[in-house]
């Protein structure tokens, strides 16, 4: 389990860094020149941009939500012409406006088929 390390000289956060001369990983202070040998060699990186995809979240009862706007959008599953819609809520740097629709009859989730997806636009 990774934990936070603090500088014993200036109490700032220590960051993992490779020491090429000693060929080891150390925790180094970015303010002063203090470093210490890392006991735990585990360093984590959580890259959410590669994990995040355009997908509909849990939408149990959205078709009955009176605060959502309605659109005349045909459901690809049942053919109903009424759907509520909402915008993609993912927090990414390159977020474009993506609308998700929920059919008011069968509760099917879908996106606008006339809008090209990024991988389809090439």
Automatic annotation (TrEMBL):
Q: What is its main location?
A: nucleus
The answer, when asked if Zinc-finger is one of the entry's keywords, is: yes
- Subcellular location as annotated: Nucleus, Nucleolus
InterPro entries from the UniProt entry: DNA-dir_RNA_pol-M_15_CS, Rpa12/Rpb9/Rpc10/TFS, Zn_ribbon_RPB9, Zn_ribbon_RPB9_C, Znf_TFIIS
Superkingdom assignment? Eukaryota
Domain annotation TFIIS-type: ranges? 71-111
Sorted keywords for this record are:
DNA-directed RNA polymerase, Metal-binding, Nucleus, Transcription, Zinc, Zinc-finger
Cross-referenced PANTHER family: DNA-DIRECTED RNA POLYMERASE, DNA-DIRECTED RNA POLYMERASE II SUBUNIT RPB9
Entry similarity comment: Belongs to the archaeal rpoM/eukaryotic RPA12/RPB9/RPC11 RNA polymerase family.
**Its job:** DNA-dependent RNA polymerase catalyzes the transcription of DNA into RNA using the four ribonucleoside triphosphates as substrates.
Under the subunit heading, UniProt states: Component of the RNA polymerase II (Pol II) complex consisting of 12 subunits.
**Can you say what this protein is called?**
DNA-directed RNA polymerase subunit
| Species classification | Eukaryota, Fungi, Dikarya, Basidiomycota, Agaricomycotina
